[in-house]
Every structure is written in C-alpha cells, then in structure tokens.
Amino acid sequence: MTSEQADRAVLFYESRSFNYDDSWHDHFTQRFAAEISIQPGQHVLDLACGTGLLTFLEADAVGSSGHAIGVDVTPGMLRVAEFKKRKEPEKYAKVDFYQGDILKLQDIEALKGKQFDVITVSSALVLFPDPASAIEHWTEYLKPGGTFAVDSTHPRNLIPGMVLERVARRLDLQVPYNREWSQNESSLKGVLESAGLNVDKVITVENQSGYGKRQYEVGQWDDFFVENVIVKDVARTFANNDIRRKAQGLYKEEWERLAVNGQVEEIDSVFLGVARKPADGSRYVASSSSKETVFEGGCRCGGVRYTSTQQPSHVTFCYCRACSSISGSGYLPFFHVDDDALNFTHTSTMKTLVLSKFADRFFCTGCGAPIGMKYHFEEGVTALVLGSLDLDTFKGTIPKVEQHIFLREKAPWVTVPDDGAKRLETFAFAGQMGIE
Ligand SMILES: C[S@@+](CC[C@H](N)C(=O)[O-])C[C@H]1O[C@@H](n2cnc3c(N)ncnc32)[C@H](O)[C@@H]1O
To answer: Where would I find the CENP-V/GFA domain in this sequence (predicted)?
Structure first.
C-alpha cells in the first residue's frame, strides 16, 4: 500500500513522464551533482529519482566499483529511466531502478539491510507533507558519516503553483506539494537539523530554470488560474463547479496579495542543502551558537512543531472577534518572531485560514490548536500564539505584555489586566489598513 502522498504524486507525474527530460531538470541535476562529492566505489541512493537524471550522473561518479540505485513511485518516470539504461547497458550495468513509495522504504525488498554512502533527493522534498519526518526516515538508510543532499523551493519560485497551494489549503483540499515552510536557507537548515543531521552547507541556487527573475501583471491571475486549476488539474481536485468557483475568487485574492505596484515577481531560485549523519550514527543536535534554538513549540498533538533561534518579543493580547471565537475565550496572546529565526519543522496537520482581512492564521487540524498568524501588512515577521511555546525548552524569560489591542471588540465578560501595557481600540496599523 502506498501513502496518499504517493498516490497523488503518481497522478501528477505519470502524464509528465514522456517529456519530463525536455525541461530544465536536466541542467539543474547537473548543478545539484556538482555540489556533492561522490567518490568512485561509493553506494548512492537517489530517492524520487524520476527519469534518473541525477541517478545516471551519480552512476558516472561511482564508476564500475560502485552502485547507484534510483527509487520512484511513478511507473512512467521509471519506464523512461529504464529505457535510458537499456540504451547504454555496459555503462550503466551498476545502476538499478526500483518502484516504490519512498515514505515506506521498508517495503522495498532491494533496500533491506542496506545503508548508503550518499542519499540524494532532487526537486522532490516539497512534495512531502512533513519534510523533517521524511528525511529522518530516508536517512535510516544512510551510513554513519554519510552525506544527504536535498533542495527546496524559494518562496517566490513557481509562483502560480504556490498560489494554488494557498488556495487549496483555504478550501481544505489536497495538492501534491507543501512549500509554505521553505522560506529561506535557514528553513532548510532547520529541517535538516530536526531530522538529526549535521549541515555542511545550505546555498541558494539561482536561475534554476534559466529565467532568473520575472514580473507578471497583477491582471494575469486569470491565465494562471485556467492553466493550473482547469488544464493541469490531473487529480480533478477542482473538478466540482462549486469548488472551482470558490477557488477562482481565492486565486485572484492570493495572487493580488503578492503584487507590489501592480506586478507579481517570480524568482527562479532554490535552496540546496548538504548534510551528514554523525560518524557515530547518532542524531546530530545543533550546538550552541548565535543560531542556537532558544525555544520550541507547536500544537497539542505534535502535528505542528517549530523552533526559534530568537527570543520572543512584542507580546500582544488581541481581543478582536476572530481571536475571541478561535480561542473560545475572550482573547489570544501572541508574540513575534522574525521569519529568519523561525522554522516549522513538522507541518503535516498545519492548515492556513483567512478569518479576517489582516492575516493568514495557522492551525493544527489534528488537535484544533491555534498556532499563529502572518499579518498581510508586515513582512518578515510571524506572530505565534503564546500558548504554543513549550516552556520546558525555553531559555529566557517571556517579555512583559506590550499592548492590548482591538479593545473595541472585546467581549464584555473579559477584564483587561492592569499591567501598564498600552491599550488600543484597534491597533497600530489601523490607518494603513483603512480601519476607522
Ligand atoms: C520533480 S520530479 C524529480 C525527479 C528527479 N529527482 C529529478 O530531479 O529530475 C519528482 C519525483 O518525485 C516522485 N515522487 C513523489 N512522491 C514520491 C513517493 N512517495 N515515493 C517515490 N517517489 C515519489 C515523483 O514520482 C516524481 O518522479
């Protein structure tokens, strides 16, 4: 039995298999391979290998004394890989491809009892709902001291797809990717470290598919909606007319939210990380440095977890109607962390909802806990719910409450503490947001 994620991936990739190699992936896998040092004689495992673009490069590097194995779940992709192998049987005698779900490597007979010098995952990590758990599973097959290499997308890369992902989350629909966590180099570093790996480097690879940066007109949302939601909807996620109508409105809204001066910018970059399993086979624990994790947090059931390398700041109690009803009480207490310092390490049950025009809110669908929100008017900062912070992990003191906001919407049964904090009828950005 394959995972739901794998079933969706097959739907997504089967129809692309026959012309997958006529894309930028060929060039990108060469750049990926150049960042890892593979030695003759080594044993390499290329997961989500697709048509084997990277696997064949790895086979070249390990030579006849080594071995390269590619695993993928999509039959069409593997047929192309096998075809290429058959064309050069002698050269590729030491390459093997296996079909299987890489979230369940234990089910693949050929991998039983094996450990590899190098494991790679190219252009696939953002297909998995919980990247850290997936990496942890994959690296069970990595030798102590072995190398793991993976990439994840820049938040502005492949913008139409990212907008679609946000729309799907708002409609509670499944799409075959999960990119929201991959914000910068430190997000990928954090995910690798949470999987117990020691990170050698994380770099930004620019010009992944060759265009660098490009601008779209804000009015172009409609073209991308048709392309992504109607033409490319292989899993028929949006096939129902009612869902499609709702998706159309949300697609426009999410697209417009990304626009600056009427233009939406797309950046053709990815983050590429190379990490190692500690030589004694143990889990790597990040050492103390200026980037030390100062607290962890998450929801009640563990489906959402995060780490922060920055102390909490700007403690704010919000009494708006949305916070009141979400909390089930009269208010929600928040604190701020810069996005650079925050890493969502487990996101399998995380859902984003827009409940007011000011912010996207994150929740855990497993236990219902509110996690935090991102304001539309303030980039680079996330507000986390104070109750999501694990005090057991916290090295520091929670700052004093700075402000009580949206007091004009406060429920009558709530008493605001007399703590000397600022009291605002709305909030500091009210003018900017056009609030009276
Ligand atoms: C964008 S392609 C990348 C292929 C290749 N690594 C490359 O760089 O050209 C993503 C691949 O991930 C595979 N994939 C997705 N989920 C998978 C899963 N659970 N198990 C195995 N393969 C999976 C898909 O079948 C597809 O071939």
So the answer is: 295-414
